[in-house]
Write a structure and sequence with these properties.
This protein has three domains: 133 residues, Rossmann fold; 58 residues; 154 residues, Heat Shock Protein 90 (2-Layer Sandwich). Helix 6 runs antiparallel to helix 7 and helix 9 packs antiparallel against helix 10. It is an alpha/beta fold and 369 residues long. It has a six-stranded mixed sheet with strand order 1-12-13-11-10-8. It has a five-stranded parallel sheet with strand order 3-2-4-5-6, sandwiched between helices. The chain has a two-stranded antiparallel sheet with strand order 7-9. It is globular.
Length: 369
């Protein structure tokens, strides 16, 4: 049986608590888990290094007094392969002498907390370091795209513009070739603008800076608008586009602009990858305590090797657009974040016959449950 892709909300940050006292370590781990963190534990330096360097640790809380090696030794070994932004380390120590604090910070600690500490203060410092790490990751993503996806079209645009300037004489009418060059410049500029907009939008979502303007919303009405907005595109590609909406559909609490953004991505992808003569159908219906929207196509379907990376950022998928359309590689990851922000779920599956179905669920307005 073909597997489906279901995008769950992003996993909570993983913290590693390194403390030789079982009681202190367990109490701290319990409190951090109550705050929503995924917490691993280590009772000595060797185990701490193994976990931190082999796993996906986001932040380390490191005691200075360990049975097998000093906390500073652990810290220095971590810094050989993990920078302060890649893996923040907050030192926890019973010593509060200025020299100890300075030594820890000079050895690569991001922060220093003395025992006994106030959990509220410790949590604030943890969040600060994790926020800095997220900003660094967003910056890395932007640089990766800027050096790849933006660089090539920019160079081509400059080449076209230079050739246009050389060939086009002042006052001369535009030739068909010159008009085609201008069209290319506009299309490439719009594509680059879309990349920047997607990057900024995804960064805002992941850093919790995007706020939804949620109201009781008729999802069927938004779907009808989305179909109208994509009808010309569908006709141009020779693809049939229609919908079926359950009668008396209850409202969902949603930001209609953001849900339209999700629908534009899902419908746009179905049309982008669909061959001429194919069919894209959108269905909206109640499913338990949610409203379910499905975008089904009769295109090539989703290769099984792509299922696990459908909603990941910058994924390189096997299928290619049938009309040479361009893609930023961020659309589905933005859909994932927006649907999760609404408290919903999103996923995809291959159809039993031909093509694939992308779907999302949004919870019903609470008083209608």
């Amino acid at each position: 049986m073909d597997k489906a892709a279901i995008s769950e909300p992003l996993q909570p940050e993983r913290l590693l608590v390194v403390e030789d006292s079982d009681a202190v370590r367990e109490v701290l781990a319990i409190k951090l888990r109550r705050e929503g963190y995924n917490v691993a534990e280590a009772a000595n330096g060797r185990n701490a290094l193994e976990q931190a360097l082999s796993g996906n640790t986001d932040l380390v809380l490191l005691d200075m007094q360990l049975p097998d090696m000093g906390g500073l030794q652990v810290l220095r070994q971590l810094r050989r392969s993990r920078s302060m932004l890649d893996m923040p380390v907050i030192v926890i120590s019973g010593l509060d002498r200025p020299d100890d604090v300075v030594t820890a910070l000079q050895s690569g600690a991001n922060d220093y907390v003395t025992k006994p500490f106030d959990l509220t203060v410790a949590l604030a410092r943890i969040r600060t370091q994790l926020s800095a790490r997220q900003l660094k990751q967003a910056n890395d993503r932007f640089l990766r795209v800027a050096s790849h996806d933006l660089k090539k079209p920019l160079l081509l645009m400059l080449d076209v513009a230079r050739q246009f300037r050389e060939d086009q004489k002042p006052g001369a009418p535009l030739s068909a070739e010159a008009c085609s060059s201008l069209d290319y410049l506009i299309e490439s500029g719009q594509y680059m603008q879309r990349i920047v907009d997607d990057l900024l939008g995804l960064s805002a979502l992941q850093q919790g800076r995007m706020r939804l303007a949620t109201l009781p919303t008729d999802l069927g009405a938004i779907v009808r608008q989305a179909i109208a907005r994509n009808s010309v595109y569908a006709q141009r590609k020779g693809i049939t586009l229609d919908m079926r909406c359950e009668k008396n559909l209850p409202n969902v609490m949603a930001d209609d602009f953001r849900i339209m953004q999700v629908l534009e991505n899902l419908i746009g992808n179905a049309l982008k990858f669909g061959p001429p003569g194919s069919h894209t159908h959108i269905a909206v219906r109640v499913d338990a305590d949610c409203v379910l929207c499905e975008v089904a196509d009769t295109g090539p379907g989703i290769p099984q090797q792509d299922m696990d990376k459908l909603f990941a950022e910058f994924s390189s998928l096997s299928n290619r657009p049938t009309g040479n359309e361009k893609s930023t590689g961020l659309g589905l990851s933005i859909c994932r974040e927006l649907i999760h922000l609404h408290g919903g779920k999103i996923g995809a599956r291959n159809n039993s016959g031909q093509g694939a179905t992308f779907w999302f669920r949004l919870p019903l307005e609470k008083h209608q449950h």
